[in-house]
Amino acid sequence: MVSYKEIKASNALINDATAPRVAVFVGGTSGIGKLTVSALVATGASVRIYLIGRKSSEERTRDFIQELRAINPKAEVIWTEGEIGLLSETKRICSAIKSKESRVDLLFLTTGYAPFTTRRETAEGIEITQSLGYYTRVLFIQHLLPLLAAAEAPKVVGVLSGGMERANVNLDDLDLKKPGNFGIVKAHIHYGAMNTTTLEKLAIDNPNVTFIHSCPGWVNTGNVRRGLDSNSIKAWLVWLLLEPLIALFSFADEESGQRHLFQSTSAAFGGRGVPWKGKPGINSLGKPADGLFLVNYKCDCTPNAKVVSLLREKAMGKIWDHTQEVLRPYL
After folding, report:
1. Cα–Cα distance measured from residue 79 to residue 310, given in angstroms and rounded to the nearest whole number
2. Which keywords, in A-to-Z order, does the entry hold (predicted)?
3. Where in the sequence is the domain holding 144, given as residue range(s)?
């Protein structure tokens, strides 16, 4: 485990020279994304942050941005509204960022929520939690890769379930449309494996960019009830049983934000970023080199070598081809 003391010491080294000069936070209006934005701004570094979220979160997010400006006047936080469950909206937002920026140092992805309900498809015909938890994320990465490649120490951090992959991905129904294939457990496992497999493919093809698939542990973000009818039995069970458990065992908000800031900036993962004198991270290929890092809530690398090797061999090609087929109209 990387101790909290070590993490705070590393984050204390973040300044104008080592901070991500331009950062894009997709899903940064709540939860871990918001906590990490707060931690980054609190370093006092000169940064420009694109904070992307839904129209319904605009008012409270603008209040949050005012708080950030009071903490660090050198930080420029740009509210960027979009319904990014829609791939067309993701493309629009990426086009806007590309028209303004020549580089992106950090792309931080936290969109999504637990699929407690039955399948709900977007207007584009994609199940909403899969769009947010997988397709939207990959589309952001692919659009912004040229800007990431122009940075000195670019990182992509996706927060979901890195290191907890299972090999039983349904390659015959990657969108879980067939009866009986969709459910909270199946979907969560499925999306996590798809993320890791695609992120590794992107890491192999783009060795100048560091990729992290993070498993945050329990964090009391309040996001667990999203998508549920507030008067439904499931919502009441979550409120009575699951949320108290999360509150009991979760990290403090500040520590979660600091740990994810460490992942986003430290040279512990791949050698680029804030200098790190500790043990170097091991990537998904089992090497202390750049690539994809599966990082747990302790900030330890958990390569899950046996499962990831099977996914690499049997699933990577099919998942990538299917993903590109879905995303092609929006690239």
Report:
1. 41
2. Oxidoreductase
3. 4-330
